Structures are given as C-alpha cells and as structure tokens.
Amino acid sequence: MSVFSPGAVLAINRSSGAIDWRRRLVPFGGSEVLFANSTLFAKSDHTLYALDPETGKEIWKFCPYGTGRETIYSAPTVSRGRVFIGDRAGYLHALDARTGRRLWSLMTSRAANNDVNGPPLIVGNLVLVATNAGRLVAADAKTGDVVWNRQTGGPSINEIARVPSGLLVATHSSLCWFDAESGDMLARRSFPCRQVMTYVAKGDRTYVVTAPKNGSWRELVGLSGQEIVFRRRIPFLWTLARVRSGIVEISFGGFAFLSPFSGERINHVQIDEECVAAHPAEYGKHLYIMTSKGVLWALRWPPSGLSARGSTMACSGARESIVRNDSSTTSRAS
Predict the structure, then answer these.
(1) What is the per-residue pLDDT across 64-115, written as a single tens digit (0 to 9) for each?
(2) What is the pLDDT of residue 312?
(3) Which of 5, 163, 168, 209 has its Cα between 20 and 30 A from that of 123?
(4) What is the DSSP letter of 49?
(5) How deeply is 151 buried, as exposed, middle or buried, from its count of CB atoms within 10 A (0-12, 13-18, 19+)?
C-alpha cells in the first residue's frame, strides 16, 4: 500500500497485520501500487519506482524532469515486459520493465493543457491514453508510432474502460464510446451542467458519479450500454470501485456494496473516520480498506448471503483486524 504524506510504501502481512517493510518516498506518495513482472511499481508526484516486493529495495527509478515539481500524476500500466506511463508535459513513455530504460516517448499533443494524467490502457498491440487536451490517442506499443488520434470533447483524467462495444472514455461532462480498432466514436452521452466525478464499468453496466458545478450533492447514474436505467441522489458518495463481486461505493463514513440494477445500497459498513483515502483491494476472502487517517482495515469478504442477482445480503462485512500504519499523519493513501 502507498501512503500519501509522508510518502511511503508499506508491505503488510495479510494474516497478522504486521508491517514487513516500509520504504520512504520523498516527499509524497502517489497512486495505487502495482505488482507485475515480479516487481512492485510505486510512484511519487515526479518519480516512478520499481521495487523488490519482498524487501522494498529500489531496482530502478524513472524521474524525467527532476524532483522540483509535480510532473507525473498518471499511474503506470505494465504489459509484455514494458511499463507505460504518462506525464504532465503531454508525453506517453514506454520503459523496459526490467531495467527502467526508456524505449520511446510520444508527445500526445502540443495544446496548452495536454497533461496525460490517466493510466494507459493496452488493447492488443496498441497502448491508449486519454488526455486533458480532449484527445484519445492510440499508439503502437512497440514503436510509439501513432495509429489514430481522436477528439473526446473534453479533458479526461480517468482510466479508459474496456466495454462490450469497444472503449469507454469519461470526460469532465460526458461519456464517449469508441471503436477500439478504428478509433471511431460510436456514441456520446452528456451530463449538462454537471461534472463527471468518477465512473466504473463492469460488463455492459456503467456507473457514473456526477455533481453540479455549483453544488455539493452528487448523483449516481447507472447505464446498460448507453441507456440510463437508474439515477440516485447521494449526498456523501466519494468514489466507486470495481471488485470481483461487484461495485463498491466509498463514502466519507464507510463503504457499501451496490445493487447493479438499482444502485441502492445492499450492505453498508460504517467506519467512524473518512474512507475516501483509496480504492479497496480484494484478495481471497478479504477486502482491505484504508482510511485517510492511515488505518488499514481487513474485512471478511464477500459477505455471505449475496444472491446471484446481487439483491440481498444476509450479513454485513465483519471487521477482522485493524492496523495503524502511520498514526502521526492524516493522509491520502492507495
């Protein structure tokens, strides 16, 4: 797990909750840690680190612009021995996953606001990124040559989702569906006078959190394909996370499993401190949640009684253990 401030990556024993090792990232941590190719990838706001997952020892690091300012918000993606990551100067980089050597760098746009802040997506031989310049760019993963470049209609910082019809990109005010091979836009659904805060896609279902530009309340919108099937006003929902067993709503005071058909809370676990720090991690029969105060929760998961249609739950997620990993900070963590 990654702690934002002071920046650190920690390895926690899943059975006991004991800290196995801790590696400091100066000054801040960043997005989710990623395990791939027997390597742990973590990042600060200017450096990508490749670490030994057993010890936390640094294998290599990639810091293209120095440590004086925030230059990398994108999370990395690993595929076929290569690491792909964007930066705030508009570049998409491909690195050798074993050595960190830069293989190629692609300038995605020369617009004024061209940040590549969302994680790259691999589709076959293509690597795709959505940018703040309102572009969806597909490049050859081996060479970095642009295969196609399309307009999305607005800035995008979210991940690109794979859906049955192709690709789904969220901009600040709309959802856009694209054909993965040609890059042709298939459909667009806008949310006038509202901002898209976050979204997740699972199968043919998409769940979107929107908020008015001049207000605080939020709305959860559920779609089947491109058609809206429900709307639910939600005053405290912060973000959504996709786990194997469905969709989890993360709010300021806890989290809940959501019905895929109505968006209603099926099961709510109350935790008396902010849970907006990070997306949960699911492993085996446990769900791990980290709070903004630096507490890691391990819960038995999924709750028993979840029906095949996801409409009922017999019991709530049970708290199995609590680990305070950094009692001196209030932090964002992943």
Answers:
(1) 999 999 999 999 999 999 999 999 999 999 999 999 999 999 999 999 899 9
(2) 30
(3) 209
(4) E
(5) exposed
Neighbours of 132 (CB within 10 A): 24
Q: Taking CA 144 as the corner, what is the angle to CA 125 and CA 30, rounded to the nearest 5 degrees?
A: 90
Name the residue with tokens 């004991």: 18
Helical segments of the chain, H only: none
Please list the residues that pair with 199 across neighbouring strands: 208
| Helix, coil or strand: residue 42 | strand
146 in Cβ contact with 138 (< 8 Å): yes
d(CA 203, CA 244): 11
Dmax over Cα atoms in the chain, in whole Å? Answer: 54
d(Cα 156, Cα 92) in Å, to the nearest integer? 15
Lowest-confidence region among 58-72, 183-197, 198-212, 271-285: 271-285
pLDDT at 276: 62
Cβ partners under 8 Å of residue 212, min gap 6: 193, 194, 195
Assigned token pair, 18: 């004991």
